[in-house]
Amino acid sequence: xxxxxxxxxxxxxxxxxxxxxxxxxxxxxxxxxxxxxxxxxxxxxxxxxxxxxxxxxxxxxxxxxxxxxxxxxxxxxxxxxxxxxxxxxxxxxxxxxxxxxxxxxxxxxxxxxxxxxxxxxxxxxxxxxxxxxxxxxxxxxxxxxxxxxxxxxxxxxxxxxxxxxxxxxxxxxxxxxxxxxxxxxxxxxxxxxxxxxxxxxxxxxxxxxxxxxxxxxxxxxxxxxxxxxxxxxxxxxxxxxxxxxxxxxxxxxxxxxxxxxxxxxxxxxxxxxxxxxxxxxxxxxxxxxxxxxxxxxxxxxxxxxxxxxxxxxxxxxxxxxxxxxxxxxxxxxxxxxxxxxxxxxxxxxxxxxxxxxxxxxxxxxxxxxxxxxxx
Amino acid sequence: xxxxxxxxxxxxxxxxxxxxxxxxxxxxxxxxxxxxxxxxxxxxxxxxxxxxxxxxxxxxxxxxxxxxxxxxxxxxxxxxxxxxxxxxxxxxxxxxxxxxxxxxxxxxxxxxxxxxxxxxxxxxxxxxxxxxxxxxxxxxxxxxxxxxxxxxxxxxxxxxxxxxxxxxxxxxxxxxxxxxxxxxxxxxxxxxxxxxxxxxxxxxxxxxxxxxxxxxxxxxxxxxxxxxxxxxxxxxxxxxxxxxxxxxxxxxxxxxxx
Lengths: 375, 258
Ligand SMILES: Nc1ncnc2c1ncn2[C@@H]1O[C@H](COP(=O)(O)OP(=O)(O)OP(=O)(O)O)[C@@H](O)[C@H]1O
Ligand SMILES: [Mg+2]
What we know:
The complex is a heterodimer of chains A (about 375) and B (about 260). Chain A has about 375 residues and is an alpha/beta fold.
């Protein structure tokens, strides 16, 4: 009753194919694992004899139909004999379902293809830049609309995201900044001791942390932590058609999903930056004390007298811009997700890399800007 | 038919936390039949399917397929066993990063050393057998309609000519014509390939049209098994409501007029 009988999985007889007096005699089990090699044989025959075939599956029947086609192509009229009725049913099913044309196998790439690839990536990078700027414009317009009608602002969502991206990031950000302070003090001490100028370690730590490192490294951690989370969250909603569902309910995904995240991050990144500054200074002070004997009192008074408050502002003014970059890139990439899981993973990593790159580029621009202003 | 059953489940207990889904479930599936598994939403049909194919470890009970215990088997035996069945999940579960052709080729690629040309030819045949047009081969799953995804999932399930196919609600969400065509397809392939079909379904028309036997799941066990007409006489409120409700009568009437 089963075409193949009940078979133990590996108890098979190898299939054989012989040309005997113009008859193509097939014998044995014609199963998916073993028929392929047989098709390499060629010979003269018009009749295909299946009486010796013990088992036949789709692949076996495919082989039979392929042989039959070959006879036809050579100008003969193929005939099949000795098939059981189940076998001929299966062969008939295969005949009906054989594709007319050959199925293309993916071709190898040539140099021209690769050049074309380069061109395409350049154009798409340009288009993407325009798209991100366009997206930023939409977000700004939506925020402007919300300012006119503050009743529509989603406070719950904003507070929720503030906790996610801000409060929950405090431990990792402060630990990171603390360690940076320690490292700076340690490395600075090694150099400054050679000149007997240990006490300048305070200026070194204070300026580098307040001006650059505190906020830059915080932004990088937040990009890795929250930028990727934005992309993944919005992307999986996109994948499960939740965003389309929102649109049909008259909700604007930018207003519901993007704006709260952007606002939350823009508020929280400066706060995280301040926390990082404190933690960094604390780490630096601790290490200066242990390593150089600069007491906390000396550290504090030197910090207050020698380091201008403008360094703190130069650092902090950058925070909202970095936050905007991270949030916009994260949400934008999330909205780009198409209906498959691979694009989600791919875009999540793109979002982190792009956000970090843009943050560093922006930081460089700020440095030039402040240098020109002479701050 | 007094052959040993091809699938046999004995005393199956499955539990998620405190929630017991199956509580001492017994079920036999005979070789070559199409068995329809019915039951209300959440009665554990999909969970039963997952347990039988070894994706889910039951708390208790014996599951044998082809006379081999699915649970306590070596990785090697399990791999050999797995080659002999194909599964189509409730949502198709196509690999979303592969196109239809690559999806259907995936089991061949994993299990056999075939040349790319042979693989492509066999995949094309399987795709046509399930009634998809040839240009569907190069499409990504996200570009297919729900019904086409189901067909592609079916093509992948039968890629290696399995002896058993497990189908989880293959006709749910299809239009009536598409659903009827799918039923015909299952019956036709069963005949051509000698399949045993484990069919989870809510579709009364499918049950009428192609199932040899029906097993009703309720209260954590198989409440009754038998043919469609035997189901009419089972004395249980759910079974009565299911098989004697207005939809069941319509399906029955339709069958009698054909
Ligand atoms: N991974 C899981 N974790 C916890 N509970 C689960 C899990 N999978 C299933 N369940 C529970 O097991 C029960 C049976 O689920 P199952 O998916 O088998 O239902 P079903 O009979 O297939 O229903 P439907 O007809 O809606 O598909 C449900 O109550 C479900 O909540
Ligand atoms: Mg289910």
